[in-house]
Structures are given as structure tokens and as C-alpha cells.
Write a structure and sequence with these properties.
The chain is α/β, with parallel strands linked by helices. It has twelve helices and 23 strands. A hairpin with a 2-residue loop joins strand 13 and strand 14.
């Protein structure tokens, strides 16, 4: 018999240690090491004597048929997956508890089942009656979805192998599954890895598409070993704020489609509703005429999205000013603040800075630099920005505004929503492509934009942070130390 091998495995990152310790040296988390049996079910002496089988080798030349896709019936979901589910593919969907993962998959499986496909929903966290209650609330109880509450991977594979091969299988969730091949408890790193491997093997063998639901940690990362994310074909993240009704489905990894597309949903009493025009939704509750707000014309994949950036600059009573940002990269905010102070003479060292992306959307592209800078200066000098203008452009460390990609698509979306003007980099004028009927205000340097905003503003109190028109830093001017 094989000797039992015990080791301590981190339940956050999967790192293994010979002895217990309070902190994992790999990921830095505390109290995440658990004792697991990492020995195989087959003795090493028997495994080493097994002879391998021969297999056929093929050349690079030749034609491979396109992978057939199965449309989910939800346009936003198909957009993120690249056109539908590929046969034999395995997708991992993660998100915060209560964000709507089970609701989304219940709606998708019901639409596929109504289209005549065999769909199986395996729940490891809820009873069958609980899933039926959700389907009844969504008005989908009449959909012919095959439902079960089971956690044994061997029993699941054996049941699914009977009869016709399902076109789509949902496993909710992978952390509750367990297999007899390992002796660890359900939810541990070893069990999650082994269970996922067994289900992936079944998908590749039969051609069924499988969706695995994964838990997330407190910082939003999918729980369990990162090797599971490498094993699956696609990783999708379901994001959103609990106080907002908007939900964003984003592809983190996709072997069969793009990774920069997003799907926008709205949570209602009857489930998730697809949002075909997210720009109009994000701007529906916009505060017109308020200093510190700017509309950013962004791009998410191939879709232009207009969203409002809100900034608040207030004097601080603390020794170290606070910098808080929601929905944007904090490093980009620090860079924009440094450029404003170094090249535009904007003094922000005595002010708290808050920046928020309205609607719960997360922006990843650097094209939002110009809109963020405009909102910050507008709040500082108490100046109202034009309500019919959009902003986009990347700011370099020298203060120069650099062009960004897909300028015509941004302008066309802005014109469709009724905007009259656009503030964009000077070098992007040639790429405007007819400018969609908008009045273009091109800027070559951030100093120019700051001077225009400061000219229409008024100082708050006795703040000396009024932006100046020249680009000489204040600390190098004569008479200022």
C-alpha cells in the first residue's frame, strides 16, 4: 500500500508546506494552511510499471473545422463568450455572493432548454426545491431543465453519461464537489483541483459544454488554486455593486473569443435584464451643472460606453491627504495628480481627493486620464464643465495629451446620445472620421485644458491652488522658495 503523505496546503493559493505555519509565504494570507493527504490512490510502484499507449501524430498542414457554437439566447452573454458556448469547452464563472450568478445561469439554461437542447443544472449548495423557487420567481418554471442536487463527481459523471449527451451542464459550485480519488475534505485545494480535472475530462470526451461556478475571496479573486483557471477554457467575472442594479459580465480569459468585451445587465424583480445601450443607462441619473463631473467616452472591447466620472477635491485637516478612488486604477489617479502639480501648477498637497466612476463600472483603459483631470480641476476651482461635452485622451508624464484608439466610435456614440462637443487630443483630429457632427476641441497639452477650466471657475475659500496658465512648477518660481 502507498504510504500516506500529509502536507499543509494553503487554501488560498495552493502552496504546499511540510509543516504548519501561520502565514503563507506564497500569497501572504494568514491561517489558510490546512492539513491534507496528498498521496495518490495508486501506489508509486504500480504507477511506474504502467506502459504508455501509442497515439497518432499529425502535421501542422490541413484544415480544421470551426468549433460549432451554441447560442445561449442572451445577446450580452454571447457577446462575452465570443458568440456562444463551444462544444467540449469548460467555463469558470466567479462573482461575489448574491451578485446574481445563479440567476444568470438559470435564465441561460432555461432559454436553451426551451430551444430543444438537453440542459442539466447540478446544484451542490441548494436543494432542488430552492432552485425551483428561483425559477418560479423568474417565470421559468415551465422550462424543461433537468435538475439535481448532488456533490459526488463520480455520480454526476455516471448519470450524465446515460442517454443523450447534454449540450450544457452547470455545476454550482465547484467548491462543493468532491471525488473519491483523493481523501481531502470538500472545498480544499486538492478536492477542487481533482474535481475540476474529472469534469474537464468528461467535457472533452463527450463534447458537452460545462459551466463551473466558483466562489471568490474577500479581494474579489476566484477562490481555490489558480491552476483551475489555467485548466478551463474561459474565466468570466460577474461584477457589480450591491447598492447598484447594474451587473457587468467580463471575460478574464477566453480561448475561443475576445477578453475585452463586457456584457451589461440590470437586476430587476424578474431577474437579469439585458442592457443593449449601457451608455444611456450609466448616464440616466447624471447631475447636470455640478462641478467635478465629466463624461468619459470609453471603449469596452468593440462597444463604446459613455460613463460619468465624479471628482471631489476638498481641503484636508489631516497631515497626509487622503486619496480614494472607486472604479479606476489608483496608480493612474496618482500619476494624473502628479502631472497636474508638476506641469500645471495645481497645488493638491493640502486637499483630499475622491474619484468615482458612476454606475459601478470599472475602467481599465488609460484614455480616461483626460476626463479624470478635467473633473478634478473642475471640483478644485468650483467650475462647471459643459454638460454637452465628452472627454477622452491619455496623459503622458510630460503633460502632453496623447491619442487613443477608436476615436470615430467614441464620437459616434456621443453624438447618438445628444452630446454636441468633444475634448480630445490634438493628434487625434485626423482620426475623427467625419467627427459625427460634433464640435471638436483639441488640446495638445494638459496645461491648456487646465487654463480653460480655471478661467470659468472661482476659488473655494482662500485656496491658493488656482491653476496657472504657464507650465512652470510653482516650487521653481522666484519668490516661492
Amino acid at each position: 500500500m502507498a504510504k500516506s503523505t500529509l502536507s499543509f496546503v494553503c487554501q488560498n493559493c495552493g502552496a504546499a508546506y511540510n509543516r504548519w505555519q501561520g502565514k503563507c509565504e506564497s500569497c501572504g494570507e494568514w491561517n489558510t494552511l490546512a492539513e491534507e493527504d496528498t498521496s495518490g490512490s495508486v501506489p508509486v510502484s504500480i504507477r511506474s510499471k504502467r506502459k504508455g499507449r501509442t497515439f497518432a501524430l499529425e502535421s501542422l498542414a490541413g484544415k480544421s473545422p470551426d468549433a460549432p457554437r451554441l447560442s445561449s439566447g442572451m445577446t450580452e452573454l454571447d457577446r462575452v463568450t465570443g458568440g456562444g458556448f463551444v462544444r467540449g469547452s469548460v467555463l469558470l464563472v466567479g462573482g461575489d455572493p448574491g451578485i446574481g450568478k445563479s440567476t444568470l445561469l438559470t435564465q441561460a439554461t432555461s432559454l436553451l432548454a426551451r430551444a430543444g437542447h438537453r440542459v442539466v443544472y447540478i446544484s451542490g449548495e441548494e436543494a432542488v426545491a430552492q432552485v425551483r423557487l428561483r425559477a418560479e420567481r423568474l417565470g421559468l418554471s415551465d422550462a424543461p431543465v433537468q435538475l439535481a442536487a448532488e456533490t459526488s463527481v463520480e455520480d454526476i459523471v455516471s448519470t450524465l453519461s446515460e442517454g443523450a449527451v447534454p449540450r450544457l451542464i452547470v455545476i454550482d459550485s465547484i467548491q462543493t464537489m468532491w471525488t473519491d480519488t483523493v481523501e481531502s475534505a470538500p472545498g480544499t485545494v486538492t478536492q477542487v483541483r481533482a474535481s475540476a480535472q474529472a469534469l474537464i475530462r468528461f467535457a472533452k470526451k463527450t463534447g458537452a459544454a460545462i459551466i463551473l461556478v466558483g466562489h471568490v475571496t474577500k479581494d474579489g479573486q476566484i477562490a481555490g488554486p489558480r491552476v483551475v483557471e489555467h485548466m478551463v477554457d474561459a474565466v468570466m467575472s460577474f461584477e457589480g455593486e450591491g447598492s447598484q442594479q447594474f451587473r457587468i459580465l467580463r471575460a478574464v480569459k477566453n480561448r475561443f473569443g475576445p477578453t475585452d468585451e463586457i456584457g451589461v445587465f440590470e437586476m430587476t424583480g424578474l431577474g437579469l435584464r439585458e442592457v443593449t445601450n449601457p451608455s444611456e443607462l450609466f448616464l440616466s441619473e447624471r447631475d447636470l451643472g455640478t462641478p467635478g463631473t465629466a463624461v468619459f467616452a470609453g471603449i469596452e472591447g468593440t462597444r463604446p460606453v459613455l460613463v460619468e466620472l465624479q471628482a471631489l477635491v476638498a481641503p484636508t485637516s489631516l497631515g497626509t491627504p487622503r486619496r480614494a478612488v472607486v472604479g479606476w486604477d489608483p496608480s493612474r489617479l496618482s500619476m494624473v495628480l502628479a502631472v497636474l502639480e508638476a506641469h500645471c501648477g495645481v497645488k493638491l498637497s493640502g486637499h483630499d481627493v475622491y474619484l468615482n466612476v458612476a454606475g459601478g463600472l470599472r475602467i481599465h483603459e488609460p484614455a480616461a486620464d483626460l476626463a479624470a483631470a478635467a473633473a478634478l480641476v473642475s471640483s478644485l476651482v468650483n467650475a462647471q464643465l459643459p454638460t454637452d461635452a465628452v472627454y477622452f485622451g491619455e496623459i503622458s508624464l510630460s503633460g502632453v495629451v496623447r491619442p487613443v484608439a477608436q476615436t470615430p466610435a467614441r464620437l459616434k456614440e456621443a453624438a447618438k446620445l445628444g452630446f454636441q462637443r468633444a475634448v480630445l487630443p490634438e493628434s487625434a483630429r485626423g482620426d475623427a472620421g467625419g467627427d459625427a457632427g460634433l464640435s471638436l476641441n483639441t488640446v495638445n497639452s494638459l496645461t491648456t485644458l487646465v487654463a480653460e477650466i480655471a478661467a470659468r471657475g472661482s476659488r473655494r475659500g482662500e485656496s491658493s491652488a488656482q491653476p496657472e496658465k504657464n507650465a512652470t512648477p510653482a516650487r521653481f518660481r522666484r519668490g516661492e522658495g
